[in-house]
Specification:
EC 2.7.7.23; 454 residues; magnesium; binds uridine-diphosphate-N-acetylglucosamine; binds magnesium ion
Length: 454
């Protein structure tokens, strides 16, 4: 099999986005556009991936890490000029080069593969992926000759009124014979409306040289959407969201209202889990089977085990065991780990804490920097006092502890196994195992005094 190389164009500023964030880093379903492109290409059998960076080069490299090699395009003189930068890596190599724009995040790997196969079957030097657009404005138009062969691509700003009527567009994805590509790039000029070196001009150059130039049409324009402004960004988000939701539904996940359910491209969800409306599942989240998530919940980079429910809650960078109930209105902050059969009730916040199996924090509590054992009951309104304004301290609560309502556990402090904290206590010293800790002033009743006050 011949070598396949990929070049991703990601050096542009993205002026039309009117943004401080470089265009290809704008997220679609939570992942930067260019990363969708790179991840899709990685799933193909490609020997080298070269990303052309320029504007925001460091940020783009930081985002993609070692998924790609990089070449810097110092000045953005056009898409042909961008590809020429890859010469230092790809020049003279035998093989096929797939070129994809970093702003087309929806093109599926299967489509790239079909393009490649078509290119091979035609023995072509260049094959362009085209699509038919309802509204082709802004895209390069595919001009075919009387025999239906592609003869050139004309950019919107260079197109005659007649050419502007053409609805077949250049998607910005191509396959080239690697050597022919770099030879032809030398002949591209910038004599056009934008004074740029256009990559699509390579098509006309090769065609005029008598080489075989072909086109492969993608039947689904949505896949090929190029994101140049925020309107297209929202369209891309909608298309990707539908695609992701549909994948999960086909895999056995119930999504009550797909229109208000946002799931990241990389999230995994088990069968018979129900996602209720208004829920956002972000990052590398993994959710087990038979869970109920939502309504109105936000889960970020977390693992949720089977048969757990999360209602109207926010969960970030946390792990939740099986058969556990979170919410309504709970907040699990980073580094929270909940065991199995745990209950976290309303208005409870947990941060950087571990809670063992069968432990319950049912109402109005803050648990921070704590190690809580199993079968612990933390009464309503109890909190770990973990911060003195400068430093954070740890609270250790061993198995089978009962903390009465409205207790302050002033860290560092330890409650021994089986101990009992009387309601309303402010605990500042260790409570030994099986002891009762009580730390509150005694009650005094002044008989008939209330009458005097009235
Ligand atoms: C480009 C195509 C157009 C096609 C459309 C599909 C050209 C000249 N036009 O237009 O035919 O219909 O994509 O979406 O190729 N870039 C660089 N360096 C540069 C210029 C651009 O790396 O000097 C990158 C951009 O970051 C972007 C990609 O190339 O990811 C495409 O550039 P963009 O300006 O979006 O081109 P379009 O006008 O969309
Ligand atoms: Mg574009």
């Amino acid at each position: 099999m011949t070598n396949i190389f990929a070049v991703i164009l990601a050096a542009g500023q993205g002026t039309r986005m009117k943004s401080k964030l470089y265009k290809v880093l704008h997220p679609v379903c939570g992942k930067p556009m260019v990363e969708h492109v790179v991840d899709n290409i990685q799933s193909l059998n490609v020997s080298r991936i070269v990303t052309i960076v320029g504007h925001g080069a460091e940020k783009v490299k930081e985002q993609l890490g070692d998924k790609s090699e990089y070449v810097l395009q110092e000045q953005q003189l056009g898409t042909a000029h961008a590809v020429i930068q890859a010469e230092s890596i790809l020049n003279g190599l035998e093989g096929t080069t797939l070129v994809v724009c970093g702003d087309t995040p929806l093109i599926q790997p299967e489509t790239m593969k079909a393009l490649y196969e078509h290119h091979n079957s035609q023995n072509a030097k260049a094959t362009i992926l085209t699509a038919v657009a309802g509204n082709p404005t802004g895209y390069g138009r595919v001009i075919r000759d009387a025999d239906g062969q592609v003869s050139q691509i004309v950019e919107q700003k260079d197109a005659t009124p007649e050419q502007q009527l053409v609805t077949e567009i250049n998607t910005g994805t191509y396959c080239f014979d690697n050597k022919a590509l770099f030879e032809a790039l030398k002949l591209v000029s910038n004599e056009n409306a934008q004074g740029e070196y256009y990559l699509p001009d390579v098509i006309e150059i090769l065609q005029k040289q008598g080489e075989i130039v072909s086109a492969y049409t993608c039947n689904d324009f949505d896949e090929t959407l190029g994101v140049n402004d925020r309107v297209a960004l929202a369209q891309a988000e909608e298309i990707m969201r539908n695609r992701i939701n549909e994948k999960h539904m086909r895999n056995g996940v119930t999504i009550i209202n797909p229109l208000t359910t946002h799931i990241s491209a990389d999230a995994q969800i088990g069968r018979d889990t129900v996602i209720k409306p208004g829920t956002t599942i972000e990052g590398q989240t993994v959710i087990g089977e038979d869970c109920i998530i939502g309504p109105n919940s936000n889960i970020v980079n977390s693992r949720i085990s089977d048969r757990t429910t999360v209602q109207n809650s926010v969960v970030t960078d946390s792990y939740i065991g099986e058969d556990t109930a979170v919410g309504p209105f709970a907040h699990l902050r980073p580094e929270t780990q909940l065991g199995n059969h745990v209950k976290i009730g309303n208005f409870v916040e947990v941060k950087k804490s571990t809670l063992g199996n069968d432990t319950k924090v049912s109402h109005l509590s803050y648990i921070g920097d704590a190690e809580v054992g199993s079968n612990v009951n933390i009464g309503c309104g109890s909190i770990t006092v973990n911060y003195d304004g400068k430093n954070k301290f740890k609270t250790i609560i061993e198995d089978d502890v009962f903390v009465g309502c409205n207790s302050n556990l002033v860290a560092p402090v330890k409650l021994g196994a089986g101990s009992f904290i009387a309601a309303g206590s402010t605990i500042t010293k260790e409570v030994p195992a099986d002891a009762m800790g009580i730390a509150r002033s005694r009650q005094e009743n002044k008989l008939d005094y209330a009458k005097k006050l009235k």
